[in-house]
Amino acid sequence: MIEEKLESMGIKLPNPPTPAGSYVPAIKTGNLLFISGQIPMEDGKVLFTGKVTDDNLETAQKSARMCAINLLAQMKRELGNLDKVTRIVKVSGFVNSDSEFYQHPKVINPASDLFFEVFGEKGKHARIALGAACLPLNSMTEIDAIVEFSN
Fold it and tell me: Cα–Cα distance between 76 and 57 in angstroms, integer?
């Protein structure tokens, strides 16, 4: 059902990105799935790079949405079926921001909005949005998530 919803939204999940370091993409413990930070990567290429400023806010929002799509791809890989998601518990968003940029929540909102759009009430979550001096591979954004699931 969730995958049909994604299809109706014009979203095709990519192959989940592989880690850029010495860690695993996700860990299951109990009924929680901890997903490592996802950057706006597709087919091995970072799609959105550089510092976020007031001038490129819309591009940064696209970057955050792509991170959320990669989080969905990791959920699918780990759970086999997105219908097993019972709650998006927490999202942490990091923004590769210029020192004079203060709109971090606005950058991460499209990721949060996507989870709500896809999962409805189950997509509402706790969140943090932070600025960072730099992010891996010079990506504009990086987002991780904690997800509750059923077996």
Answer: 29
